[in-house]
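Our preliminary data section would be incomplete without showing what the modeling component actually yields. Below, a chain of 386 amino acids is followed by its predicted structure, encoded as tokens that our downstream tools consume directly.
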Amino acid sequence: MHQYPHTYPPPGRMIHVFVGTKAQLIKMAPLMHELERRNVPYRFINAGQHAATIATLLAQFDLRPPDVTLFSSAGNISSLREGFAWLFRLLWQALIHPAQTRQMVFGGYGGLCFIHGDTATTLISLIMARRAGLSVAHVESGLRSFNIFSPFPEELIRLIAMRFSDLLFAPNEWAYQNLQKMKIRGKAVLAGGNTIIDALAYAQKKASQEGLSFALPGHRYAVMSIHRFETIRVRRRLNRVVQLACSVAERLPLKFILHKPTAHYLQKFGLLRALRDTPRIELLDLQPYLLFVQMLKSAEFVITDGGSIQEETAVLGTPCLILRTRTERRDGLGRNALLAGTNEEVIESFLENFAAYRFPPLYTRREGAATPSASIVTEALRWLDR
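Predicted structure:
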């Protein structure tokens, strides 16, 4: 796949792809595939927020190593202390040394920098690109919870990114209309879908080629993945999660994905033993992405507080219970996904009727239809040629 041109564009026409988290790389991988397919040179920048996870994802998505990694670590940033230290160092670099940032981070090129989503890396990449004099394209733009404190700081980061980007790629009509109502200064573009659709199509094809599957006769199970700090840092909320996990395990086997921060707080609050001692609960480390997609696809249902899994299950058609009171995403709602918060009646209703929430997958597209990633690249090249 990696056939790169030996000639580079003029300094003002370079494309930069800036990621830092696992979810960002998964969703931006199809965009990089599309750039390579068109033989368009680009620079790949890794902020290093999820350094260990990204290293394994590169091989799974057949991507070349980053041109520059801003934070080298053997593991992921998994604590608030590590996160603040990382954020402060990169912000200092961007704000105090813009010329050095342009040279070290962007290779001396201008052009267009793709940023994604609503993470700390989103904010860092926006500030660095702006300070270095680049234009900015915000992918997955227009998502809103309409509450600045829920989720925090994601909603605030989204608002900042949308206000200061030049190109804003909305994954759906609802997000596009949100951008229109904000009267943003940049150009809003309807991307025709979330790039997770392209990522899952790629993952499905590669998993099939490698013979990866969780679909075994008679092998029924549920999946649970909880990692948001507002859930795991409050003992009362985390205890509810453990009680729910034990309740699910009475119905069918449960694969509980043990994120490092989640494991830390389960241990801190003395709740980890309850999970370990409950029959039919299997505690699993983070899985390779291709295998994890197969796990989600074949699960009876999924319980999560994460936005990415909400999006993935919406595409896969897997029933999904979302343990949040508010979400900035519409993916799956009214279809395969149910927003439950902590409402016990809603949760119990889902567990009793989860089969009614299964739908056909959405990653198949009609022949000739442009993928979200192709639409984004086409518009970006038009922007550079304007």
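The radius of gyration is 21 Å. The CA atoms of residues 125 and 292 lie 28 Å apart. Preliminary results of this kind motivate Aim 1 of the renewal.
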